[in-house]
Design a protein that fits this description.
Elements (H helix, E strand, L loop, with lengths): L8 E6 L11 H6 L1 H14 L7 H6 L10 H21 L6 E4 L3 H9 L4 H15 L7 E5 L3 H7 L7 E8 L2 E6 L1 H13 L4 E3 L15 H7 L12 E2 L6 E2 L6 H9 L4 H10 L2 E6 L7 H10 L6 E3 L9 H13 L7 H4 L46 H9 L2 H6 L3 H20 L13 H4 L3 H15 L7 H4 L3 H13 L40 H10 L5 E2 L8 H4 L14 E2 L17 H6 L2 H16 L23 H7 L14 H12 L1
Parallel strand pairs: 1-2, 1-9, 2-7, 9-10
Antiparallel strand pairs: 3-5, 3-6, 4-5, 7-8, 11-12
Helix pairs in contact: 2-4, 2-6, 4-5, 4-6, 5-6, 9-10, 11-12, 13-15, 15-17, 15-19, 17-19, 17-21, 25-27
Length: 668
Amino acid sequence: MAGPAADGKIAMLFGGQGTHWEGMAQELLGSSPVFAQQMSDCAQALEPYLDWSLLDVLRGAPDAPPLQRVDVVQPVLFAVMVSLAALWRSYGVHPDAVAGHSQGEIAAAYVAGALSLDDAARVTALRSQALAALAGQGAMASVGLPVEKLEPRLATWGDRLVIAAVNGARSAVVSGEPEAVDALVEELSHEDVPARRLMVDWASHSPQVEAIQGRLLELLAPIRARTGDVPFYSTVTGERIDGTELDADYWYRNLRQVVRFRDATQALVRAGHTVFIEACPHPAVAVGVQETLDEMGDLDSLVVGSLRRGEGGLRRFLMSVAELFVGGVAVEWSGVFGSVGRGVAGGCGVELPTYAFERERFWLDVEGAPRGSGVSGQWGGQLSEAVDTVRGGMLRDCLAGLDPAAQAETVLDLVLTHAAAVLGHGTADAVVPERAFRDLGFDSLTAVELRNRLNTATGLRFPRTLVFDHPRPVALAAHIHEQLSGGSPTTGTALALRAPAPRVDVDEPIAIVGMACRFPGGVESAEDFWELIASGRDAVGEFPVDRGWDVEAFYDPEPGRAGTSYTRCGGFLQGAAEFDAGFFGISPREALAMDPQQRLMLEVSWEALERAGIDPATLHGSTTGVFAGVSQQDYAELLRRGTQDHEGYALTGVSNSVVSGRLSYTFG
């Protein structure tokens, strides 16, 4: 089978800490003899250095130590990663090179043959035990910024906050004192820059590591590195090294210096590697790899994971194998399908349906398989993931025989099918075409996976930001249809890009079809407002108690005193402190930083659309305008003479365009 990655070399990647999760290897221990055997070998190699059982931790035994401990999680991750590498090899997938991120280099060194299993076990166990001395003193965070823009922002922190890793063109990790890390994350979040603190309480790749240098060199002195059988690309140096350099000093530098993962990826690409397999319990470096590939203009490469958080069994692994197979990599399927699995490029020997796009995915089962085929009833259905993508490869031929409306629906079906597969749904019917991808459950990782699937299915080459540029399945399908047809999608279908409506002369210049409002006195609708006017009741009330104000301390009968009020009454909106951030796709942190007026504008605008019977999703791409009548505010003056208490208003500015932009972004 030919594919974009058929002629390239395979690089196997091993991530650092953060890819772990409770129960990550339990299913494979019971379903894969190859995985279980390698895990047993690792347990035996680690035993001299540990006072706990590797297999007890993996199985969640009551007396096992917690996985969160650094001296526990790192040896466990090492064992899981090298066992996944063994499982890949059992399907005929052998790496032409390896690379690892931080502690992942230990697994890479063993798989490359540069370290024996005993030496690799020594490094991962004793290194993590030495690192435990730093626990509680540091923190780390991932940041979605190019390192060139991130580094200058850290200058004011000195050694308290440093670059720990450069993963891709727009992704890095910082490390340092907890207060400094938290302050940076808060600062970046206010600017809508992706930033989150990692689940570690030590500061790897920072000056704090220097405190354990002597101890590490002593503990790891017996290591005897050698030239590996598989090329080893170092994320300490950023280039290929022989393997004999992996002595005690190297493993100290691996912990202290910046992780140059982006440089190592670039070196792998330049050496002809087009297939990247992440042998981890959850993908962590895949996004950085994809960023680097896009940066280098290499859109024909394939990036594949192994397992995923919450999906640690053979089913998920075989989906990854099938993805690799569809990309053109030879796979040995005999372990799943028996002798029928042998063929061209490890061909599956399964006849594909003649119709390229079926809403329900094509599943195999033992009852439907021919006698003697060797198709496993338990795992035979997993090849359907490959079948889906192969069917998608016939897309252009399929569209050529359809009218434009049918083409549009076919492309939409393709997008929905692959989106459902990425999310783990049984059918495409589980994906609502008009819902935003973020609301469907997509994140940066699954967005890239969907992009990769659509690249293979359509023969097109889309950017990594495809899903974010076209944030709903219906919009994404419209874009793909346009690319395939060489023009605009057909109007009158669910995929039609909404063109400006023709101007029509009407008697009424403005027609009000929906209305919503919020006023003091408990007014939450137009009906409430009319009742207030008709009754003539007073809308002034006491100070609210849901704003975090100390109402009693705030009151002072003497007028003119700063920070106080000499009245106990005013016109206040009820429920202004209540806001469903998740409904609008806004993080709780961002919601707190927003001007309350913006939150109210979102609620009122949504209600007005509901009252008009308009689905907000249908406005995407239309010429609907947004006008927000907001009075001028004195935020500029507040910011000039204010303190950190006012920093949240930095998001609002002084222009009505900010509020209009907030509405456009949320509803569009």
